[in-house]
Design a protein that fits this description.
SAM-dependent methyltransferase, seven-stranded mixed sheet, alpha/beta
Length: 225
């Protein structure tokens, strides 16, 4: 897949649970979900009475109109590439590429509705890596989905390392998904990132995720102090 910029594409609570192998106990932690974009993870958790999630993303500083414009400017091309290439991929959670793209669009619309109502609250924080406006160990768990490693061609190795150090500053545990780049190959940054963090004293594990979309095996990175 060829993308020349980071696109807006959201996932829901079930996808988050699968991507990061989130247990019921995990979901009771204080969670910061960074680069959350137009996900409905925050909304669905709140609808269950769980107000323990803070989503952080630079788009939360924008108006609804600007967010919608940004989404529309890239989504049609993304959908086209997914449908054109998707027949060669393995599908498990979705009935093919069209359903996957439709799901992403539906999640985006649900996010917009929630952001219109709750976007002024602290649960949606305008912030971006590698500098977050949170206190040291403010959270039990930090999640980062479809930014680090996915956009290896746009984000430097230094950016990855600085971002992970920042996530580890604000949370006791960090989980990053996926470890593949947009060609669905293991990112070339995984090994140097793992080596660097282990040398700095962190425990770093590659774990298989329960999330299967276009490849047979997805992995995430779990990092603890």
């Amino acid at each position: 897949m060829q993308l020349d910029q980071i696109i807006l594409f959201g996932r829901d609570l079930d996808q988050y649970r699968r991507m990061f192998n989130l247990s019921d106990a995990d979901l009771q932690c204080n969670i910061v979900s960074v680069a959350d974009g137009p996900a409905t993870f925050n909304r669905e958790m709140a609808e269950q009475g769980r107000t323990n999630v803070v989503s952080a993303d630079p788009i939360y500083g924008k108006s609804l109109t600007d967010i919608k414009t940004q989404f529309q400017s890239t989504f049609d091309d993304f959908r086209r590439q997914i449908i054109e290439q998707g027949d060669t991929w393995n599908w498990d959670l979705f009935d093919g590429p069209k359903e996957f793209a439709d799901k992403g669009e539906a999640v985006f619309n649900d996010f917009l509705e929630d952001f219109d109502q709750r976007g002024h609250l602290d649960c949606y924080t305008h912030a971006s890596l590698p500098d977050l406006p949170f206190q040291r160990k403010e959270f039990n768990l930090a999640l980062c989905s479809h930014l680090l490693f996915a956009y290896t061609h746009l984000l430097s190795l230094d950016f990855h390392i600085r971002s992970l150090r920042e996530l580890l500053r604000v949370a006791e545990e960090v989980r990053v998904f996926p470890l593949n780049d947009l060609s669905f190959e293991r990112s070339e940054f995984v090994d140097p990132v793992v080596d660097t963090l282990r040398k700095e004293g962190y425990k770093v594990e590659l774990e298989q995720s329960d999330y299967f979309d276009v490849i047979e095996k997805n992995f995430f990175l779990r990092i603890t102090h």
